[in-house]
């Protein structure tokens, strides 16, 4: 594995290699070669020195030259600006010129090769500049030279007028520019995983990560469409070789710490059983029969995601969506259930998870949010942090290290994708191309960079050219040559078939099942992976644990150079804890309110009967003492219910104030 990065250093004119882009104003007019004139000495004019009138004339000439040069530069800039506008690239002419010069320098781009065999693959995809950005005269400041991504920060020198480029280079497994099609992105990211899922029964996960509006959904929907085709091509191949497999799909989202089935529009509960297995209670799984049906079901799920407008995207997906595609042995559910128990604690023979993460927002963009949106933002950032920490823990070996799965619902439900021995992950970091998003883009790239820190060869400052050389060397290393498409699975000699025959050959009668059940299903509830869970065994509701949130922040503090922990870290940790508690209090309040309504309804019914027993038209004989005593009891119950609800409400409102105070203490800019 190879990767390199430049952490903070600017690529100044001297570091940038052949083309100097740095600390020189692109537009600054050249001064005349000798702008200064030595003052003429007072006294007897020297025969050698110029007469004062001549010197003045020369100053005047120089000034005139400078004026002309300035006018010429101004004219050229105006012309360039007009041309840029015409070409759909408005924005700062000088910066764009410097970026253009940078891109024109002699460089070598590598060709993409498949990294399908890697446990974690990190890619970056840049989207094109959009119409809104063009209207705002924003401009493209990202250069993708696979596998590098270079971000040009356009800065002014202390003089306030001299412009220069500060370029940061990162290197990943793949970098895709704005002209790269979904087909190409798919080819080097998800496509190799399809083989892994079928041939090795693997757990493959593809994440799209990035700033809101950066192209995650665009990328993930492209991958869904291509994967739908390839999954059915594979199923057909296996069928032709005598192995009948089925495709099952579940699709859910995590929004604000809640889990929602996107196919059935139903709230789901996440639980952890006695074995530490995370279960999504009642998640619907549908059998898919064709590519068209798969596409349609994916589109249905995508359309139902929770969206809100953000600064960057009018239709921003504010939830993490998780589309799980399970490969199962064809046949009855009973055999399927039995196989699941035999094969592993996880039911599917192979599983592909396509995850479109909620977009991260800058602190500045969340300032005007109301509480719900603030909590939503905090929850998104916390879960993305937790995700990164889980990756890091795993990438650095995982053994012995605490993996903070429980710090968020997202990492809880993905536990299987991380810990399974046959797990592979692709992370696609989507980035906006524009200068106005440069700070966020740097954060996205750092996030992606740190996900796989172990394999970063150098922590120091790297010249982009040096990065390129390192990558060239890596690309030429054994095993990284361009891959040919793998052959179809050999009949009878593949691990999936082996797994299945092994399962079937074992004694199925030993497995738990319900003899009375004609359809072969156990009476216990069936969950996402078709696995069964005994409610008595459920030991923990899966609310994110405060300990794991603490562990998460402690891990982050450890990453700070020289244990450098600032108040910001503590405030952030505090905010995440308060938001977590607030979500729990909110749940408690809603539950308490619902109970109160139910109790009130029951008491109301009883009151009606009580009253009709003493004042009904046909009532002759009644027991007014019993009526009074019961009414007293009912009113006491009502008072108790109201007191309980009020207490809960007061607690919730206290938490709201705490959240407000915590949010004010945190400048929510980069959470990673
Ligand atoms: N590579 C691309 N080529 C062309 N258009 C793109 C590309 N990537 C994104 N877009 C367009 O940019 C807009 C925003 O993209 P998208 O909705 O995928 O962003 P997102 O990262 O999912 O945002 P959010 O996190 O807010 O949901 C969409 O109109 C999309 O069509």
TrEMBL record:
InterPro entries: Kinesin-like_fam (IPR027640), Kinesin_motor_CS (IPR019821), Kinesin_motor_dom (IPR001752), Kinesin_motor_dom_sf (IPR036961), P-loop_NTPase (IPR027417). ATP binds at residues 210-217. Residues 9-36 have a biased composition (Low complexity). Its main location: cytoplasm. Residues 628-662 form a coiled coil. It is found in: Cytoplasm, Cytoskeleton. Residues 46-55 have a biased composition (Polar residues). Residues 513-522 have a biased composition (Acidic residues). GO terms for biological process: microtubule depolymerization; microtubule-based movement. PROSITE patterns: KINESIN_MOTOR_1 (PS00411), KINESIN_MOTOR_2 (PS50067). SUPFAM superfamilies: P-loop containing nucleoside triphosphate hydrolases. Pfam families: Kinesin. Residues 58-80, 529-547 have a biased composition (Basic and acidic residues). Keywords: ATP-binding, Coiled coil, Cytoplasm, Cytoskeleton, Microtubule, Motor protein, Nucleotide-binding. GO terms for molecular function: ATP binding; microtubule binding; microtubule motor activity. Residues 1-93, 473-496, 508-547 are annotated as: Disordered. The keyword Cytoplasm applies. PANTHER family: KINESIN-LIKE PROTEIN, KINESIN-RELATED PROTEIN 6. Belongs to the TRAFAC class myosin-kinesin ATPase superfamily. Kinesin family. KIN-13 subfamily. This is Kinesin-like protein. It comes from Achlya hypogyna (Oomycete).
